[in-house]
Amino acid sequence: MTGYPAPLARVIEQLSKLPGIGEKTAGRLAFHLLKERKEAVLALAGSMEKLKQEMGLCPQCFGLSEIPPGREEVAPCKVCRDPARDTSTICVVEEPSDLMAVERSAEYKGLYHVLHGAIFPLNGVGPDALKIKELMARLRANPPVEVIAATNATRAGDATALYLAKMIKPLGIRITRIARGLPMGGEIEYTDAGTLGEALDGRRDL
């Protein structure tokens, strides 16, 4: 990068590859790191290195899990190994970050399955690119009562939910789609028409 010393340019180049980080922001972050104590920068670098060494995908739900010290295999995640979880429901999400978002709500107590994407033919992403085969094998081995399609409210998310319904219904397992509507604290006056329409369509008895 023109004008930067080589060591600084390398850091800026790597930081700018992160999502949402442009060259200017990467430059500010790099200068911040340059001003930090050496110990703090080394601690950050060490934690990033360990992120790849000590994290992997849960062999059951494909969410994020840890690799125990002294082992090479990824252990089942905290949710999958929790005996208190409700095994009658499996919530299917697109990404591990979605799983964590649902967990933060503290409303759901069942199990999960992470697809690692959504069906998007225009981008060359079909069902075989996702963890759908693994989901179907899991449903056949230990059928739950209900599968919740918690994919995003996008065309790709909707297409994925419809595909899951087509695959799962013949197994005799109930499949539901998460409701859409007004966010907590939202005011009708400031709600967009699409969201308000979804809220009306998804209404339920009181």
The strands making up the biggest β-sheet line up spatially as 4-3-5-6
Number of helices: 7
Uncertain segments are none
* Strand/helix succession: HHHEEEHEHEHEH
Distance between the termini: 61 Å
Q: Which bin fits the share of residues in helices?
A: 40-55%
Q: The biggest beta sheet, please?
A: 4 strands, parallel
CATH fold descriptor of the domain at 86-178: Dna Topoisomerase Vi A Subunit, Chain: A, domain 2
Calculate the mean pLDDT score and round it: 90
From the 3D coordinates, which CATH architecture of the domain at 86-178 would you assign?
A: 3-Layer(aba) Sandwich
Number of strands: 6
Helix and strand content put the structural class at: alpha/beta
The radius of gyration over CA amounts to 21 Å
Broad shape: globular
CATH class of the domain at 86-178: Alpha Beta
Beta-sheet strand percentage? 5-15%
What does this protein structure show overall?
The structure is a single chain. With 206 residues, the chain is an alpha/beta fold. It has a domain at 86-178: Dna Topoisomerase Vi A Subunit, Chain: A, domain 2 (3-Layer(aba) Sandwich), CATH 3.40.1360.10. The chain contains seven helices and six strands. It has helices at residues 6-15, 23-35, 38-54, 96-105, 132-141, 155-168, 193-201, and strands at residues 55-57, 64-66, 86-93, 110-114, 146-149, 174-177. The radius of gyration is 21 Å and the shape is globular. It starts with 5 loop residues before the first helix and ends in a 5-residue tail after the last helix.
